[in-house]
Design brief:
Shape of chain B: globular
Number of domains of chain A: 1
Order of helices and strands of chain B: EHEEHEHHEHHEHEHHE
Largest sheet of chain A: 2 strands, antiparallel
Structural class of chain B: alpha/beta
CATH topology of chain A: Alpha-Beta Plaits
Number of strands of chain A: 4
Shape of chain A: globular
Largest sheet of chain B: 7 strands, mixed
Number of strands of chain B: 8
Number of domains of chain B: 1
Strand content of chain B: 15-25%
Distance between the termini of chain A: 6 Å
CATH class of chain A: Alpha Beta
Strand content of chain A: 15-25%
Helix content of chain B: 25-40%
Radius of gyration of chain B: 17 Å
Oligomer: heterodimer
Distance between the termini of chain B: 43 Å
Largest interface: A-B, 28 and 29 residues
Strand order of the largest sheet of chain B: 3-2-4-5-7-6-8
CATH architecture of chain B: 3-Layer(aba) Sandwich
């Protein structure tokens, strides 16, 4: 059981976390933009998250907090 | 549930001005994590350079000084000598450290000053729009080498770690990358060691971080990480070039 929290307004939509996720459950939003105008990252299947924090390690903007 | 990963305490809440996918943010975080882990936030003084990371003073919670272009190691020397019980680090790019500041870098290393240098090598001048840097790869297309860097007219790229490893005084020189999770973990260890060396009074430590510049390389952040793996690392091999403590 793991929980990801995104500080969406800091996300620049670079997608480095999407590439890093071993479970492939992160994706850039197709429905919304943050106040910077970027499509922020979202978790498509929170139940599948193992809390490895690979996404947070690769995030240049400290968007992701991981709880496990 | 316990928090296993969050923004380090030594970083402010100011959003980075860096381009999307720029790995400066990752290295800032690793530096802040080292400061947190060693519990030295209150006695750390950072020296910001000229380059993309010119506004690094906005992002670290410790005291920061802005140095003129390339002179960060000289400023760090002065600060460290005046306040020897403080931890002093510089954060510099390749245009700053390897070009205009090469003299200060080599001299500071040669004197074995007890400071920590974090050197970001992304093989290009990022802030000024992507001109050729001393570290640009052979054949690399930049604003000032539109036909690719030609060693006949523009010389060969400088490998800073190897250059400084010829000196006797530096205590620790290591080259790491931040293009993948595994490399970020290695980089974290190296940066932590560079700070710990200074706390223990071991002397000059420099960590060269192979970084990306998606904007000026003209690549997506993901492809820029692949470029590091396929083009940068073969020319700039990762590893420890000097570690006096362990007889290297």
């Amino acid at each position: 059981m793991a929980k990801l929290t995104f500080r969406e307004d800091l996300c620049k939509g670079c997608g480095l976390c999407v590439t890093a996720c071993p479970k492939k459950i992160l994706a850039l939003s197709k429905t919304k933009l943050n106040h910077k105008g970027h499509a922020p990252v979202e978790c498509t299947d929170p139940a599948a998250c193992v809390g490895c924090a690979s996404c947070a390690l690769m995030c240049p903007d400290c968007v992701i907090t991981v709880e496990r | 549930m316990a928090i296993v990963f969050q923004k380090p305490k030594s970083l402010t809440d100011v959003p980075y001005h860096y381009c999307p996918g720029c790995t400066h943010g990752i290295v800032h975080r690793l530096v802040a994590e080292a400061i947190d882990a060693l519990g030295i936030e209150g006695k750390t003084i950072g020296i910001a350079p000229v380059g993309c990371s010119v506004m690094a003073y906005d992002y670290f919670k410790c005291d920061m000084i802005e140095a003129s272009h390339g002179r960060a190691p000289a400023v760090a020397t002065g600060v460290k000598r005046a306040l020897p019980d403080h931890v002093v680090f510089t954060y510099q790019g390749d245009g700053d450290l390897a070009s205009i500041g090469l003299c200060e870098t080599v001299s500071t290393a040669c004197r074995g000053e007890n400071v920590t240098i974090i050197f970001i090598n992304n093989a290009i001048y990022g802030m000024t729009g992507g001109q050729m840097a001393p570290t640009s790869l052979i054949g690399q297309v930049t604003q000032t080498s539109p036909y690719g860097r030609d060693p006949k007219t523009q010389g060969m790229p400088i490998r800073i770690c190897e250059l400084l490893a010829t000196l006797d005084a530096p205590a620790y020189l290591e080259r790491v990358a931040v293009n993948s999770v595994a490399h970020v973990r290695q980089a974290k260890k190296a940066i932590h060691k560079a700070f710990q060396n200074q706390v223990e009074g071991k002397g000059f430590s420099l960590v060269e971080v192979i970084s990306t510049c998606p904007t000026n390389w003209g690549l997506t952040p993901e492809k820029a990480c692949q470029f590091v793996e396929e083009k940068m690392i073969p020319f700039y091999p990762l590893g420890c070039f000097k570690d006096k403590e362990n007889g290297k």
